[in-house]
């Protein structure tokens, strides 16, 4: 049995991680680490210990085998290094960090301490994505020329309030670090490394200060393989096109079934997640699932 602590367990994502740990017959939720009242209430509901910080956890009788880190983005590295130095294996919510240099310091720490570090890019394992990967690898589309993606929705003002105010900060928040990071991982999964990026920000609608996060951007990717990609992202437009809404992954957003990726090949084009394949052989779109 693997004893797991959830660090940041009082938030929305933390609560979901707690549920998954509790629902797995091979894991035990040994503690929640979070200073908020919500975390204390959650710990009482599940009859587990609750600590205000990682230091308290590591000095307690509930020292875990592994920990899930779902704290604000800019805290991932500090929390992760504390855990690594204590010999605790880590599942870290994406992104691993808000900047490359600090991310490298966490990787160095886990290597030196001989602990495992996994970043929570779970969408690679989504059944829809696994099916799309098979299509791309099968050659039915021919040489992949380009990909187009959308992550466009609207986040209400409550999303940025209270303990979640860090989501407004350009150093740790914004749809690039919070949302597009998933899409970038999936592009790597499907097509390999991205070699270069160019982006232009969208107009801002919220009353923002100089340190405010972006609301969106139009982005051009060039992959090492030569294919190109364009993405439009925004967390402040009225739109049904996003991974969460298109696939129904997030129960807090309505499932629309609308496409959010289109992959263009020399022999055919496929939209996702509806898996509609279009080619000159057929002349009309057809589903392949």
From TrEMBL:
Ranges for domain Gfo/Idh/MocA-like oxidoreductase C-terminal come to: 133-277
Q: Which SUPFAM superfamilies match?
A: Glyceraldehyde-3-phosphate dehydrogenase-like, C-terminal domain (SSF55347), NAD(P)-binding Rossmann-fold domains (SSF51735)
Gfo/Idh/MocA-like oxidoreductase N-terminal domain residues are 2-121
Q: Which InterPro entries match?
A: Gfo/Idh/MocA-like_OxRdtase_C, Gfo/Idh/MocA-like_OxRdtase_N, Gfo/Idh/MocA_Oxidoreductases, NAD(P)-bd_dom_sf
| Gene Ontology MF terms | nucleotide binding
Q: Which PANTHER family match?
A: BILIVERDIN REDUCTASE A (PTHR43377:SF1)
Q: What is this protein called?
A: Inositol 2-dehydrogenase
Q: Which organism is it from?
A: Cyphellophora attinorum
């Amino acid at each position: 049995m693997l004893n797991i602590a959830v660090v940041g367990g009082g938030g929305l994502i933390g609560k979901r991680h707690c549920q998954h740990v509790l629902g797995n017959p091979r894991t035990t939720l040994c503690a929640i680490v979070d200073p908020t009242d919500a975390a204390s209430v959650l710990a009482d509901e599940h009859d587990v210990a609750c600590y205000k910080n990682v230091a308290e956890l590591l000095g307690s009788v509930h020292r875990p085998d592994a920990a899930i880190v779902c704290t604000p983005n800019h805290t991932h590295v500090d929390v992760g290094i504390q855990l690594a130095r204590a010999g605790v294996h880590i599942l870290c919510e994406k992104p691993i960090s808000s900047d490359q240099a600090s991310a490298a310091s966490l990787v160095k720490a886990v290597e030196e301490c001989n602990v495992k570090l996994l970043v929570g890019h779970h969408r690679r394992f989504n059944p829809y994505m696994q099916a799309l990967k098979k299509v791309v690898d099968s050659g039915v589309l021919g040489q992949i020329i380009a990909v187009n993606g959308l992550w466009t929705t609207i986040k209400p003002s409550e999303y940025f309030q209270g303990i979640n105010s860090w989501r407004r900060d350009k150093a740790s928040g914004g749809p690039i670090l919070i949302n597009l990071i998933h899409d970038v991982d999936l592009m790597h999964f499907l097509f390999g490394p991205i070699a270069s990026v160019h982006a232009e920000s969208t107009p801002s609608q919220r009353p923002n200060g100089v340190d405010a996060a972006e609301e969106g951007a139009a982005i051009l990717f060039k992959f090492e393989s030569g294919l190109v990609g364009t993405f439009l992202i925004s967390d402040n437009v009225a739109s049904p096109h996003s991974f969460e809404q298109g696939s129904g992954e997030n129960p807090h957003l309505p499932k629309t079934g609308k496409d959010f990726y289109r992959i263009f090949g020399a022999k055919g084009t496929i939209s996702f997640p509806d898996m509609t394949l279009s080619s000159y052989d057929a002349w009309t779109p057809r589903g392949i699932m």
